[in-house]
Amino acid sequence: MISSKKTILLCFFLLLAGLAALTLTSCGAQTVQDQAAPADRGSFADTANVYAAKEGGHPGVIYGQVVGQSQERHVIRNGSLELTVSNTRETVSQVKNIVASAGGIIGSAYIYELKDDLYAAELTLRVPAAQFDPVMDRLQALGKATNVGQSNQDVTMQYIDMEARIKTLHAQEERLREILKMAVKIEEVLQVEKELGRVRSEIEAMTAQFTYLQDQVVFSTINLRIKEEAIATQNISPAPFANLGVRIKEAFVRSINFVSTAFAGLIVVLSAMLPALVILALLALLIRFLIIRRDRGRNTPPA
After folding, report:
1. Residue 77 is inside which H or E element, if any?
2. Is the whole model's pTM more than 0.70, yes or no?
3. Is residue 238 part of a domain?
4. Which of 20, 87, 116, 274 is the least crowded, having the fewest Cβ atoms under 10 Å away?
């Protein structure tokens, strides 16, 4: 009788936990919006405020979060541009200094030869959102800037929703742990542990997504492409005389090879025509002999 009562009580708690989870999920986002400042992200906002104050960020922008009258706006800011410069490697070095001074990092950098000793580079920059505009301005001053683009993606609702869902999952986990303490039968323990494992998996997956979203808000991404362009000058270029001796030698060798090839081809042709030439020569001699004989017959006086 006691075991039956415990089973009924356990089922009641499981049902109650499920209903509570559904209720928290449906109204979690609205609850977070009504709250002034969540406790678990207070330190994050404080750090952003301090950094923005030190670096002279724009008013109302804190690490990619636009502060409104009633709630924070979470915005992902990205940019892209192309630079035409006279020296790619020197420009890449200057870009690294700009990013480092802004508190950012170089996500990736690739330098390659474009054509004829002209080089290009492709870089992915990650800079604090508060420093996005200053960094873009400094990059454009390094050369001729083209294809400059910026994008602002407001992810406030997604941010709040994910934050509320994580809180809901943590509350559901705590209730399941309380129910697990009350379980007596092995079947009950296994059932609760299975549900607890599912909730833990959802928490880990959702936390990973939320961490990635926070990173995108805090740090802006700038895709930068650099290419060299030959600069026309009035100075005499030594390029036409470069490797002159080697080029003369190569031309002389090519000329000799051409003459040798032509002479060898002539010998081959004459060898192929030799039988015909012999026959023609014999016919020419025979005709000449007959002509000479005829002329002699005409010039001989009659007896």
Report:
1. strand 72-85
2. no
3. no
4. 116
